[in-house]
Backbone:
């Protein structure tokens, strides 16, 4: 489809290329003092295909590369209804300049998880399906744990944590409801997607429907036990193309470090409002959303 030039028309057609960039500085008592701060970018629910304007995906990759993060984390749903766009997925993700780790989502399993995983690997992405890897940045080691999709029942938590290692851990799980499990295993941070932030959360109707479907975590930050959980709005769509605020397409930047690391020291476990007030990274203090065309 030709890209509409009028932003209002593009929004009405569900073809908007606007990406919200959300930045957070997160401090966790589960990260040892002196551990280097990690700067990560979180991208999810790409849903490459007809429902997601390719220019939006292109803009998301540009936005992530502009952050120059230590690592990019992706939390599933790369396709929608078809595998025919996988070469486009590989092309776009192959432009990411930072080491990238990914777990899978329900749409990937519905349409062909092995093919999706191969497309990710061809783009240089490390696919974490119920396994973890050690990742080093600036001399400090982290463990990135990828739990496979729980919507389709492919998660295997014991296997995901079967590698030995006591590094502070980031957990990638398409479905945020596994955060309580991650919390019991000492996670420093959980990243999730799946809900698209409600996608068109007008008047709370979508949120009520999602809660009835069993979703407790729909958009933004939650605290589960002592673990901060971020539910990213994602950038694509699978069922209908429209997105409205506050669930417009998003790339998140998170600076994660120990309590007391330079910058604003915000300990987790203090409630959602506290998390929303964390200082932005790398934008000016208080930045929550920075819209770019
Ligand atoms: Fe999705």
Residues:
């Amino acid at each position: 489809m030709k890209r509409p030039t009028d932003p209002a028309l593009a929004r009405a057609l569900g073809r908007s290329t606007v990406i919200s960039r959300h930045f957070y500085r997160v401090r966790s008592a589960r990260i040892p003092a002196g551990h280097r701060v990690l700067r990560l970018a979180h991208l999810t629910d790409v849903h490459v295909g007809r429902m997601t304007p390719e220019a939006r995906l292109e803009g998301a990759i540009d936005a992530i590369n502009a952050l120059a993060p230590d690592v990019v984390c992706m939390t599933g749903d790369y396709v929608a209804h078809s595998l025919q766009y996988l070469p486009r997925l590989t092309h776009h993700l192959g432009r990411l300049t930072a080491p990238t780790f990914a777990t899978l989502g329900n749409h990937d399993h519905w349409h062909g998880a092995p093919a999706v995983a191969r497309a990710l690997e061809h783009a240089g992405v490390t696919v974490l399906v119920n396994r973890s890897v050690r990742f080093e940045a600036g001399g400090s080691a982290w463990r990135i744990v990828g739990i496979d999709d729980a919507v389709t029942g492919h998660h295997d938590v014991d296997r995901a944590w079967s590698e030995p290692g006591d590094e502070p851990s980031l957990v990638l799980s398409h479905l945020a409801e596994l955060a309580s499990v991650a919390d019991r295993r000492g996670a420093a941070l959980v990243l999730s997607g799946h809900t698209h932030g409600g996608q068109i959360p007008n008047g709370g109707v979508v949120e009520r429907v999602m809660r009835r479907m069993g979703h407790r975590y729909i958009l933004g930050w939650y605290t589960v036990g002592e673990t901060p959980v971020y539910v990213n709005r994602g950038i694509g769509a699978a069922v209908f193309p429209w997105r409205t605020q506050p669930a417009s397409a998003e790339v998140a930047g998170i600076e994660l470090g120990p309590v007391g690391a330079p910058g604003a020291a915000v300990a987790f476990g203090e409630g959602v409002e506290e998390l929303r007030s964390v200082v932005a990274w790398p934008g000016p203090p208080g930045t929550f959303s920075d819209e770019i065309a």
